[in-house]
Write a structure and sequence with these properties.
By secondary structure, this protein is mainly β. Helices cover 5% and strands 40% of the residues. It is built from two helices and 29 strands.
Length: 401
Amino acid sequence: MGVVAAWSIGIAGLGVATLGVAACGEGAPGAGSTVRDTLPSGVERVTIASPAEPASPDWKIVEELRVGSLQSSGPDAFGWIVGLAALDGGGFAVFDYQSQELRLFDFEGGHLATHGGRGDGPGETQGGNGVMLDPGGRLWVPDDQRGRMSVFHPGSGFEEAHEYTSFSWGPVWRGAMGEGGNVFRPLVEYDKEPPSRTLVVYDSTMTPLDSLPMGVYPAFDDSPGAYCYSNEGGGGCQAVPFYGYEIRLVDPQGSVWEVEDAGEYRIRRWTPGGDTAFVVVVDRPGAPVTAAERDSAIAELRERVGPGVELDPAKIPAVKPVIESLFMPGDGNLWVHFASSGGAAFDVLAPNGSYLGTAVADIAIETGDAKPVLQDGRLWLVAKDALDVNYVVRARLEDVR
């Protein structure tokens, strides 16, 4: 089965029409205008000219409800939220990595149910690392550590489990639920030489349907983003401060959105085993790394690695990463979380790369692990307080143009 990029995306809740904008002046000059041309390689380039700055956004993300706090000792006392899903009919579900529990809440934040937990029994997990909503409204919890996908009905709880081969695992699930119920899972096959990236496509029983090449997996110790060293303790590798590591998102069509260069706002959409659909280029520069920041980072690293280890300051980039993460909350559009001096800021791009607008929030939104989701015109998102405690926010998008 081949995976073909599809542009006919069903947009529900808060889609292009609900956002109330078209492609912001497609082909016309002006802020947010979209110009298309073809690179010498034959790939279409989508250039967005000077989109709105955070000071003049199109929408503001306004907090309506907060669930969870440090003072709570109940089900809304969250440890590390690595998965978030919007429930049909309102409400949300989170998967907490520390407790290995799937917890469900209603629209007003009231606790509905807790499913699963740490263990080896039916519905239990050891390395559960996310949650996905299938087309029938059921919740899927992957456990890459054990190679088992557990499926829950929101009301009655655990229904079934499907085994799958797991070559590698981590604390955060990077796969996606396809619109037809297939599951897309990117992985690294370390048993190959060199280690290779693959996108595995499963059916609704986690039976593999296809395995699509995604290129060679670069070893961290060969990366320009690593300081590797030897010392009396044996040595190791440390991440280079301010280095932009790869950001990839698999969408419900099995396409990949990838930040090509962390120092630039440049996003490529491509199909594993296939071609690049287009590249989006936006005139949004990254903030410079100051001399004080560079010196402080090097000093911290020297304390960590011990004496006698040379750390070349020139490896630290001159510019901080522009893009922090990518996600699709369920409106069919790509949301780009970009670096901002205050709060959180997001560009919203249509499936064809056209600019739709910019949204901002005063909330410290976390988008690296549990991605925000959209349901019936409301965003559910994970945020952190001053003590780094996770909580969930229900927010509305307020048009401020």
